[in-house]
Specification:
Number of helices: 13
Helix content: over 70%
Number of domains: 1
Mean pLDDT: 88
CATH architecture: Orthogonal Bundle
Largest sheet: none
Number of strands: 0
Radius of gyration: 19 Å
Order of helices and strands: HHHHHHHHHHHHH
Strand content: under 5%
C-alpha cells in the first residue's frame, strides 16, 4: 500500500491509459487497426519505460521534499517514514536504469534520447527547478506533453494529431502546477522556495494562470476548424463549460482546500481530454 502511494499508482494507471489511447485512437487509421497494434511489443515496452521513469520521478521528488511535504501534505509522507531514504534512492536508480536499458534495446534512438532527457529533467526539477518561479511548472508541463508526444516518435503516423493533444496536455498541466503552488505556499515558503505565489503573491499568480488559460482557450477554439465536428461538439459541450467553471472558482479561491479542489478538477479535465480521443 505504501509503495503504491510512493509511486502514485493511480497517476501511473492514468498515464498508461493515456499512452494506449494515443496508440489506439490517434496513431492508427481507425480503432479497429489500433486494437491490433496496441498489442505490439514495442508499445508495451514504450509504456513500461514511461511508467518506470514516472515512478522514479515521484520517488526522487519525495526524497528531496520530505521536510516540505511534512508541512504541506503530512499524510502523504512515505520516504523516511515507511520507506527509508536509502531504499527510495535505490528504487529510483533501478527504475531509471531498467527504463533506459529497454528503451535502448527495443525502441528508436529518438525515444531513448527523450527518455534520458526526461530522467535528467525530473532529477533537475526535484533538486532545483521546483523551487523557482514558473520554471518548475514549465518543466513538469513539458514532461506531461512529452509523455503523449513520445508515442508519435515511436509510431510516426498522424503525428499532427498527437502533437495537438500534447499541446493540450502542456497547458492544462502548467495551469494545474501553478494552482498546486498556490495550495502549497505555506510549506514552500518555510523552506526558501521561490514559487510564483511566494515571489509575486496570490493575485499576480492568478493573473499568470489567466494568461495561460487564454492561450489555451484560443488553441481549443481553433480545433473547430481542424477536427471533425463531433470532436468540436464535445469540446464545446463538455470541456469548455468545465474550464469556465475552473476559472470562475479560481477567481474566488483563497484557501488551501479550495486550491486543492481546483487541482483535482484539472485532473478531471485531463481525463476527459484523453477520452475525447475516441472522437478524433
Amino acid at each position: 500500500m505504501y509503495f503504491l502511494k510512493l509511486i502514485r499508482g493511480l497517476n501511473l494507471l492514468i498515464l498508461l491509459f493515456t499512452q494506449y489511447m494515443v496508440r489506439l485512437c490517434l496513431t492508427e487509421e481507425g480503432i479497429s487497426k489500433g486494437i491490433v497494434h496496441i498489442q505490439d511489443l514495442d508499445m508495451g515496452i514504450l509504456a513500461l519505460a514511461t511508467i518506470l521513469i514516472a515512478a522514479a520521478g515521484y520517488i526522487i521528488n519525495d526524497y528531496y521534499d520530505i521536510k516540505i511535504d511534512t508541512i504541506n501534505k503530512p499524510q502523504r509522507v512515505i520516504v523516511g517514514k515507511y520507506v527509508s531514504r536509502r531504499w527510495a534512492m535505490l528504487l529510483n536508480v533501478l527504475f531509471n536504469a531498467i527504463a533506459l536499458a529497454i528503451s535502448g534495446w527495443f525502441l528508436k534512438p529518438i525515444v531513448f534520447a527523450i527518455n534520458f532527457g526526461s530522467i535528467f529533467l525530473l532529477w533537475l526539477y526535484s533538486n532545483q527547478l521546483k523551487r523557482l518561479p514558473l520554471v518548475g511548472n514549465m518543466a513538469i508541463a513539458i514532461l506531461s506533453a512529452m509523455s503523449v508526444a513520445v508515442v508519435a516518435f515511436q509510431f510516426p503516423q498522424n503525428t499532427y494529431l498527437v502533437f495537438v493533444f500534447a499541446v493540450f496536455a502542456f497547458f492544462i498541466t502548467v495551469i494545474r502546477e501553478i494552482i498546486k503552488d498556490l495550495e502549497d505556499v505555506r510549506g514552500d515558503a518555510s523552506f526558501g522556495c521561490k514559487t510564483l505565489p511566494i515571489v509575486w503573491g496570490v493575485r499576480r499568480t492568478k493573473a499568470v494562470i489567466y494568461v495561460f488559460f487564454g492561450i489555451f482557450m484560443v488553441i481549443l477554439l481553433s480545433t473547430y476548424l481542424t477536427f471533425p465536428t463531433r470532436f468540436a461538439f464535445y469540446l464545446y459541450l463538455v470541456e469548455l463549460p468545465i474550464l469556465g467553471y475552473l476559472i470562475h472558482k479560481l477567481r474566488k479561491a483563497d484557501t488551501k482546500k479550495t486550491f486543492h479542489a481546483l487541482s483535482q478538477l484539472c485532473k478531471i479535465i485531463m481525463l476527459l481530454g484523453v477520452l475525447s480521443m475516441f472522437l478524433v
